[in-house]
Amino acid sequence: MRYEELADEPCSITRSLVVFGDRWTLLILKAAFSGVRRFNGFQSYLGISKGRLQDRLDRLVEHGILVKQRPETGAHEEYRLTAKGHDVYPILMAFRDWGDAHMAPDGPPVYYRHRECTGEAHVHLVCDACEQEITARDVTPEAGPGMKLPTG
Questions:
Q1: Distance of alpha carbon 141 from alpha carbon 61, whole angstroms
Q2: Residues 28 and 85 sit within 8 Å (Cβ to Cβ)
């Protein structure tokens, strides 16, 4: 199956990977959450080639995750996170939690502190009915309304 065909798969995880399935896209979003907004800022922050950066930024704009706009002051266009883009934050924090647990032998390189109380931000998977914290062992996938069964 070709990469582009994955967008038609009846799986929200697979479809999301069409947008986020490479390291540069996630690193661009990490930079955006860190306050980077201009093309040259992304390029110097990440050390990514211009062509690859433009391709990934265009994809994020196309999918409504970033919006490209010209600020009232300044000559350079900026890339700003949309509401849809802000919904990516827990995904990045889940990667961070995993990385801190399994890839940081000397401890977390960065703490993400809650401004109000200075506690640390973490991602937790919680059942929407009973509010109990759950893991993959507690979940059973079942077909939802978006699952199209073959007709025959």
A1: 31
A2: no
User: Residue 93: left if φ>0, alpha if ψ -120 to 50, beta else—which one?
Assistant: alpha
What DSSP string runs through 25-45? HHHHHHHHHTT--SHHHHHHH
Q: Copy the structure tokens of residue 119.
A: 């506690």
Structure tokens at 17: 């990977």
**pTM, two decimal places:** 0.86
Residue pair 61/79 in contact (Cβ under 8 Å)? The answer is yes
Amino acid at 149: L
Count of CB atoms situated within 10 Å of the CB of 60: 25
- For residue range 81-125, list pLDDT tens digits in order: 999 999 999 999 999 999 999 999 999 999 999 999 999 999 999
**How far is CA 87 from its chain centroid?**
8
Q: CA angle, corner 137, sides to 131 and 141, nearest 5?
A: 80
Q: Map tokens 């970033």 to a residue.
A: 66
Mapped onto helix, strand or coil, the DSSP state of residue 136 is helix
Helix or strand run (H / E) with residue 55: helix 50-62
